[in-house]
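Quick one:
INPUT:
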């Protein structure tokens, strides 16, 4: 009786497994035939009533039937999984003829581009680049630039002091004194000094406690104010357009004498007057002048033999004017929406 039941059970299981269409049905068949309440379990429970001679024969046959059903289920499972995978692959075919998707590529920061453009221009005119420490001594930041202690002009540059004699530099001018000293009183000296500077300004649309500056210095025999005007004219036309004109207005800086402010004719209105130039037709760009004899003397140069000029400009101001940027803080907030506008600049 048990042998017949086992053979019959195997035949039913084979037929059921052969007709299975998905993994869920296969799982249900496995539970039906081999589960705790399935016919296979019932047969195994009835083996206790068998004689000692019949028990091993029926036990062996029961194990063969169980293993056979289990093997058929595993084969069917692999078959169904392969069919599912094939179906997925057929739906997810990649068309290799389609163009690829371009990966996003970064670009130079707008300030970096402006600085490199200015550097390239002055390198082409024979200037070299000089860089120095951002943490400076009071001696180089002020005193060697004709700004002794308690000089009222120091009030124009509120500073971040780390000690009585150490501060964050307020301009890149200390590199002028350091470079002049390194030449031991012998010219020519022809450098530009780009870098970060710091002042205790309240941050707003046009002021920042940290900003960039590019200063220039040229010291040699017989350097004149007309040489300064020629260099600045080339700079203005290169950065703001070939139609630009410049004018020099008298001004005051402790480290130059005479001192001037340089204006350029407005590139927006052509000098007729607009909101960019505030109706004047001119835009202030930078400060400059002839190197003060005291500065030359303190750095080891004889002012009776050598003369020179110096100038200082802010890359942020140049970029704001050239590209119509209204808030200096945009340069430092790292907003990709702002920066991405100038990828080709």
């Amino acid at each position: 009786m048990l042998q017949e039941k086992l053979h019959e059970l195997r035949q039913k299981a084979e037929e059921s497994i052969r007709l299975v269409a998905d993994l869920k049905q296969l799982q249900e068949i496995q539970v039906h035939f081999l589960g705790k309440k399935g016919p296979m379990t019932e047969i195994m429970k009835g083996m206790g009533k068998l004689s000692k001679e019949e028990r091993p024969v029926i036990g062996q046959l029961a194990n063969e039937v169980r293993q056979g059903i289990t093997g058929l289920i595993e084969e069917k499972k692999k078959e169904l999984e392969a069919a599912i995978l094939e179906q997925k692959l057929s739906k997810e075919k990649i068309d290799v003829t389609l163009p690829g998707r371009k990966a996003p590529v970064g670009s130079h920061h707008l300030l970096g581009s402006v600085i490199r453009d200015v550097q390239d221009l002055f390198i082409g005119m024979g200037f070299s680049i000089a860089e120095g420490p951002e943490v400076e001594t009071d001696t180089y930041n002020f005193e060697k630039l004709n700004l002794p202690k308690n000089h009222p002009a120091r009030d124009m540059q509120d500073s971040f002091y780390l000690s009585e004699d150490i501060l964050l530099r307020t301009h890149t001018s200390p590199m002028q004194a350091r470079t002049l000293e390194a030449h031991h009183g012998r010219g020519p000296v022809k450098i530009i000094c780009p870098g970060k500077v710091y002042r205790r300004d309240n941050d707003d649309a046009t002021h920042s406690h940290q900003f960039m500056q590019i200063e220039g210095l040229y010291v040699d025999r017989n350097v004149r104010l007309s040489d300064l005007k020629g260099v600045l004219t080339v700079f203005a036309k290169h950065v703001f357009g070939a139609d630009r004109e410049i004018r020099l207005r008298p001004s005051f800086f402790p480290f130059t004498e005479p001192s001037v402010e340089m204006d350029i004719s407005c590139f927006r209105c052509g000098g007729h007057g607009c909101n960019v130039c505030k109706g004047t037709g001119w835009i202030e760009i930078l400060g400059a002048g002839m190197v003060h004899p005291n500065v030359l003397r303190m750095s080891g140069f004889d002012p009776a033999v050598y003369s020179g000029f110096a100038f200082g400009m802010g890359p942020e101001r140049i970029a704001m004017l050239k590209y119509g940027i209204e808030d200096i803080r945009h340069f430092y907030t790292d907003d990709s929406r702002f920066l991405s506008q100038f990828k080709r600049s």
